[in-house]
Design brief:
The protein contains nine helices and six strands, in the order βααααβαβααβαββα. It is of the alpha/beta class. A six-stranded parallel beta sheet has the order 3-2-1-4-5-6, with helices on both faces.
Length: about 240
C-alpha cells in the first residue's frame, strides 16, 4: 500500500503532462515565429545543453527568469544559424510575447496541481524529485508549492540525474519509507517510470503530449492517468 508519493516537477506539475519541447513549439507556432519544427528542436536542445553546462541559472532565479533565459538562448541560436533574421529588437519582442503567454499557462497549470497536491498532502507525505538547474526551491516558492513537500531532491544539488534510479532512492529515504510503500508520479517513461521501478517503487505515468510520437509501453507503469486530479481516485491508481 502506498504511504508516500514522489513527484516529478517539469512536465508533470507545470504543464499537465506535456513535454516542455512541445509546450515551447506550440508557443512558437501561436506567435508566428517563422522557423520549422526541426529548426526549433535544434535550438531547444542547444538551450538545454547550454543551461545544463553553464552557470547561467542562479539559485534565486524564478521560473519566469529561467524561462526568459531559455527563450533568449533559443532565439539567439536560431538567429546565429540563419533560421531567423538577426534583429535584436524583433527578437526581444518575440521573446517577450512568448514569455508572457507561456508564463500565464504555467501559472494556471501549477494552480491546478496545487489543489491536487494539497489534498494528497493531507493524507500522505510528498517529496519532489527533479532534474533542474539549482533553483527549484525558488520556483516552488514562486507558485506556492514549497510547503506541500516534505523534502526536495534536485539533480543539480544531489549530483545525480534521472534516469539514474539512485535519485529516487534518495526520495524514498527522504520520505522515511520503504520503496514498496512509495509511488512515483511522472510524465516520462524513460526518466521517471523505468528508474522508479528499478528503485523498487510503484509508478504512475501522467500520459500527455510527448517530445515525439514514439509509442510508449503502457504496461511498464502500475497505472496511467491523463490528468493529475485522477490521482485522487483511489480505485483508478490502486
Amino acid at each position: 500500500m502506498t504511504r508516500g508519493y514522489i513527484f516529478d516537477y517539469g512536465g508533470t506539475l507545470d504543464t499537465g503532462g506535456r513535454h516542455w519541447g512541445k509546450v515551447l513549439w506550440r508557443a512558437y507556432s501561436r506567435h508566428g515565429i517563422p522557423v520549422t519544427e526541426k529548426q526549433f528542436r535544434e535550438a531547444y536542445v542547444h538551450a538545454e545543453r547550454t543551461l545544463g553546462s553553464q552557470p547561467i541559472v542562479k539559485p534565486d532565479f524564478t521560473f519566469r527568469r529561467t524561462l526568459d533565459a531559455k527563450l533568449r538562448i533559443e532565439l539567439e541560436h536560431l538567429a546565429e544559424t540563419g533560421a531567423l533574421y538577426n534583429d535584436k529588437t524583433k527578437l526581444t519582442e518575440m521573446r517577450q510575447k512568448m514569455l508572457d503567454d507561456i508564463y500565464e499557462s504555467v501559472k494556471l497549470e501549477t494552480s491546478k496541481s496545487h489543489k491536487v497536491l494539497e489534498s494528497m498532502a493531507a493524507e500522505h507525505p510528498l517529496v519532489l524529485v527533479s532534474n533542474f538547474y539549482g533553483n527549484i526551491r525558488t520556483v516552488l516558492d514562486e507558485f506556492g508549492l514549497d510547503s506541500l513537500f516534505k523534502d526536495v531532491i534536485e539533480s543539480a544539488v544531489a549530483g545525480i540525474r534521472k534516469p539514474d534510479p539512485r535519485i529516487f532512492t534518495l526520495g524514498v529515504e527522504a520520505l522515511g519509507l520503504k520503496p514498496g510503500e512509495t509511488t512515483v508520479v511522472g510524465d516520462s517513461i524513460t526518466k521517471d517510470i523505468i528508474p522508479a521501478k528499478q528503485a523498487g517503487c510503484r509508478a504512475v505515468w501522467l500520459k500527455g503530449e510527448g517530445w515525439d510520437d514514439t509509442p510508449q509501453d503502457e504496461t511498464l507503469p502500475d497505472a496511467v492517468i491523463t490528468e493529475l486530479g485522477q490521482l485522487l481516485d483511489k480505485e483508478r491508481i490502486a
